[in-house]
Design brief:
The protein is of the alpha/beta class. It has seven helices and ten strands. It binds iron/sulfur cluster.
């Protein structure tokens, strides 16, 4: 086993960078012009393969908006379930259609596929461009379909307790979901990257170094993330077995060049 991945226990899949939202806090910046989707069949093979050699405990699909490519998402969660991976998580903004039938069907198939931790991104920032009604409809449909765990995952500005106008509006949205029986996870605190650095600049000290809470120690990776074009750590799950990519990895990136 690759010593740099001795603690690898999580696989993440960025399904697409296309998005139905256009959030002012998005760390990815603008999503305009993206259309590429991750191939769910190849990603499902990667899940099975990685789980055969590493102690993978969780798989996550996200984006952009992952439910713009629902079939690919279903394939990944279903493979993770077959591979015995206990936590199968999706982060979605819940808005991929306004058609109630399509929303219900997608929620049912998502739950059926094995996704057992659904995190719904809803807050004052998302709801500036994402209508609340279809997102709530989706949440209700997931509950009805028997979702084991569906929670709100709000973004907070400065800190969850800071009384800025964005957080106050987010608290109202959180209460609306609570009325449906959906509680809130801890969520995340926005950091100054991408759109947040431009549109929320007044809330940050931009002269300070940016601390990305998702950065990991490259010599001890706990999770790896596959991009919408299938790339991972300098290799591609479209061209080779994920185990070969993982085996070749070195923190300086030189391992990736020995292909
Ligand atoms: S924060 Fe999420 S929903 Fe908003 S634009 Fe970025 S990826 Fe889309």
């Amino acid at each position: 086993m690759n010593q740099y991945l001795r603690n690898l226990d999580r696989l993440e899949f960025i399904m697409t960078l296309a998005c139905t939202g256009s959030c002012r806090h998005c760390s990815e910046g603008s999503h305009a012009g993206y259309s590429e989707r991750l191939d769910g069949k190849k990603a499902a093979e990667a899940v099975i393969s990685a789980a055969s050699a590493y102690g993978i405990k969780s798989v996550m699909t996200f984006g952009g908006e992952p439910l713009l490519c629902p079939e690919d998402v279903f394939m990944i969660h279903s493979a993770a379930k077959r591979a015995g991976i206990p936590k199968r998580q999706i982060i979605t903004n819940g808005f991929f259609s306004r058609d109630p039938e399509k929303i219900t069907l997608c929620a049912e198939r998502l739950v059926e596929s094995g996704a057992n931790a659904i995190l719904l991104s809803a807050d004052s920032f998302h709801q500036e461009t994402i209508p609340l009604e279809p997102a709530m409809k989706f949440a209700e449909a997931c509950l009805k379909a028997g979702a084991e765990d569906i929670r709100l995952n709000p973004a907070w500005l400065v800190s969850p307790d800071d009384p800025n106008p964005y957080n106050l509006e987010t608290r109202k949205i959180v209460s609306e979901f609570e009325e449906l029986g959906i509680s809130s996870a801890k969520g995340n605190v926005i950091f100054p990257q991408g759109n947040a650095r431009i549109y929320l600049a007044d809330y940050f000290d931009l002269s300070a170094p940016v601390v990305n809470p998702y950065d990991e120690d490259p010599s001890d990776l706990h999770s790896v993330s596959v991009s919408p074009d299938g790339s991972l750590l300098g290799g591609s799950i479209y061209r080779e077995d994920i185990l070969d990519i993982l085996e070749r990895y070195t923190p300086d990136g030189l391992g990736a060049e020995n292909v």
